[in-house]
Amino acid sequence: MKKVTRLLTQVMVVVLVMLLAGSAYAEKDKTLSPFFFVKSDSSDVDHFSLKSTTVEANVVGVIADVTVTQVYRNDGKRPLETIYIFPASTRAAVYGMKMTIGERTITAKIEKKEEARKQYEMAKEEGKSASLLEQQRPNVFQMNVANILPGDTIKVELKYTELLVPTNGVYEFVYPTVVGPRYANQENTEKWVANPYLHEGQSSPATFDITVKVTSGMPVKDMTCTSHKTNIKYESSSVAAVKLDGSEGNAGNRDYILNYRLSGGKIESGLILYNNKDENFFLLMVEPPKEVTTAQIPPREYIFIVDVSGSMYGFPLEISKKLLKDLIGNLRTTDMFNVLLFAGGSSLMSEKSVPATPENITSAIALIEGQKGGGGTELLPALKRVFALPTMEHYSRSVIIATDGYITVEAEVFDLIRRSLGNSNVFPFGIGTSVNRFLLEGMARVGLGEPFVIASQEEAPAMAEKFRKLIASPVLTNITIEYDKFSTYDVEPLTVPDVMAQRPIVVFGKWRGAATGQITLKGETGKGSYVQRFDVSKTNPAETNSALRYLWARKRVELLSDYNKLSLDAARVKEVTELGLKYNLLTDYTSFIAIDTQVRLKDDKAVTIRQPLPLPKGVSDYAVGGTMAFKSLAAPAAAPVPASESVSAQAERANGPTQAAEPKKQAKEERQLLHREKDKADSKDAIDLTKTGVVASGKADSGMVTVGVIKDLGTLTDKQIREALHKHQDVLERCYAQYRGGKLLSAVVEVEFKLQVNSDGLVKVLSTTVLSGNVDKSILACLVEKIAQLPLPKTKTTVTFSIVIK
User: Fold this and answer.
1) What is the C-alpha separation between 385 and 378, in angstroms, rounded?
2) What predicted TM-score, i.e. pTM, was given to this entire model?
3) Residue 358 or 344, more confident
4) Sheet strand arrangement including 280-286
């Protein structure tokens, strides 16, 4: 009896220390992180109040005008405030919003961000329905809709415009559908990052629909939608309408991508004018000359930076491997190259670039092929390491970055690239179905390069070929634009970068006086001088070009915002704010606010919910930091689970209603898991269980997972269980690789799982017990989540088995 008492005392001490350590960890963890949504059994709260998103896009020439309609309905019993995070094109100039409740339509006003938020909170407290649209990133928006009463349907409509700039004669219209989870390190404080996500493969109940109409001055041809199943109808040779197929109603988990060409490979270049009573605007789009021959190409050096973090696990990383194999495998023998892999840290193939010999190319491909994906997304240190490499005399260096861009340090990355342009061109490759286009396009913009996005495995070879053509040689260099007897001002960009492909030169600006004079563009090609002239008087200003005022203002805001993110300046903040207010634009410092005049909620308070988002197609659960269903396992990474400790009670709590009712606690626990790589416990923080006699000290291990003892087969066979575990072996071993910042603490660990299998094949982990040895809590929690995804036969039964980690 004394021995039992002594053992129980030891276990209680261990648990107490673990709880205290977890409390201390949570106290120092100040960051916000995405987490998995767990729905309660209560029907009082409708967690999915967003019911549909409908998009109508009209493209006339090179300008797209887009209307997005979001429908919110409360099917629960409690009034709601819904917070919904959604993306948009990085080029979008959002210029209008309205809210409809029943027969009443309220047109939103543009206000300073703080004032709009103040008005919204006041309306919410007064019981009025209201909607607030805020910009979190140029491509990430937040919609708040307050006081949606039970049975209510509220429709919010927003409008934006954007310029479509073709590359190699191909126009691309992109509508992003979902914001991917952002990796946030300890310094991040942006609340929008803490958003719930559905598990990999789960569809959002909200439906998605989009129609696009393209009207051109030339015949439209080769129209394809590479992302979704669509129906394309040509109303005439120059008008095409595209509708989403009915089978794609829940396809809001990946970017909608529509491509098309114009007859003869031409682009809609030329001068566009808009005459307003206060200001006049112009847009000049110039088609560049053809490419030079390869004989005129200088020696080239390529450095490939490859993201191998957790969010790249699976489909995105496989695309990266394919892309890099295509690019590296087709280098010329005179080229030099290097490879850097990064996640939480980075690994460089060589301290200096090596010749593109068959042997070096084989080594590089083998290095990339060995990656599986895991860890954080620390792009900034990886870039610093690459830019610090010595340059090669007479070589043209290009840095190619393959990533999904799920980071929150865009400004620092832009700044580093901007400061490093003296020795490198930068070409970002976005890999995945819903990438962070703000980061990718921003890197290309400050790097004077070109952004690429690969959304499927099939696109990789063609995109690699497109990239090779792009950087083969500058098409046009030393570009200048002269204005003769045409009075211009506020022109963007001030200087025109080299043209690296068949991509037009685009210049925005304002003009005074009469629309007369001439615009002359000069430059140099590999074959000599190049001159093109435009007679302004031959172009008539048109009211249909009114979008130019929004597009110019958006371009100006984009430039100022880039600088503000690098170094916040009060004068620039004021200028962005004034631009937003003057041109009715959503910006970092201006928001749209719509408030109903009726008091609709009097004796109750609305429940605030964050609309759960689906993970982008092809993105695994690892993008949310490997978080798992057992929230109570979210203790500090160093806290190990002693042998014979059951977590069945924790499993019951994880699936109960309390969790959904405590989103703040849930988010904090999720954050603890997300940052385990950043906060690896050292010896002073770790719990030393060796002194308790519970576990022996560990030694080096491989992380190999094998099947242990099968105690209960239920209605399954031994072969079925072993085959399912064998198929899942790689996934389980990645749990070890993902969290090896902690240690197994024993050379061999055996963990027993008791499962309940439903007739639809869904698996629920009833209990987990460490039978022998000692395992890091984060590793065990990951195993719990992945065991729940075992591909077992669809039959209602319970099974008990163990796995062994060596």
Assistant:
1) 12
2) 0.61
3) 358
4) 270-275, 280-286, 505-512, 487-492
